[in-house]
Design brief:
Blueprint lengths: L2 H11 L10 H7 L9 H4 L7 E4 L2 E4 L2 H9 L6 E4 L3 H4 L17 H9 L5
Parallel strand pairs: 2-3
Antiparallel strand pairs: 1-2
């Protein structure tokens, strides 16, 4: 393994619990995560590229895998399936096309706007 990758992986996982020689899925299960299996053919159709909205809500672009996720005993949430074929045809999907936006509430911006003219 390339030393920079090893350092990045160690840095990422050491705050959880440093262990060596543990298969990745076993490590994640040991940290309390459930792994929902997705068929290889579905992975190629962007089944794993979901957008996590928080509080158990995700957006998926692949209906067959979305049904499998919802049926899995470890999943306690809601899945919305959307047609994103215009983007997946360009080799990307819903997670790749998203961006986190942080907005300042208008009540904090309003005093600055009061003195500005609208040209």
């Amino acid at each position: 393994m390339h030393p920079h990758i090893l350092l990045a992986v160690e840095h990422l996982f050491c705050p959880l619990r440093c262990r060596e020689g543990v298969e990745f899925a076993a490590f994640m299960r040991g940290e309390g995560y459930a792994i929902i299996p997705i068929k290889g053919e579905h992975q190629l159709a962007y089944a794993c590229n979901v957008l996590n909205l928080g509080k158990g809500r995700i957006i998926s672009v692949h209906a067959p895998s979305a049904r499998e996720i919802v049926k899995h005993e470890a999943f306690k949430g809601d899945v919305q399936v959307i047609d994103f074929s215009s983007v997946t045809s360009m080799y990307g999907s819903v997670h790749c096309a998203s961006q986190v936006v942080r907005r300042v509430p208008l009540r904090f911006v309003q005093p600055e706007l009061d003195g500005m003219s609208e040209d």
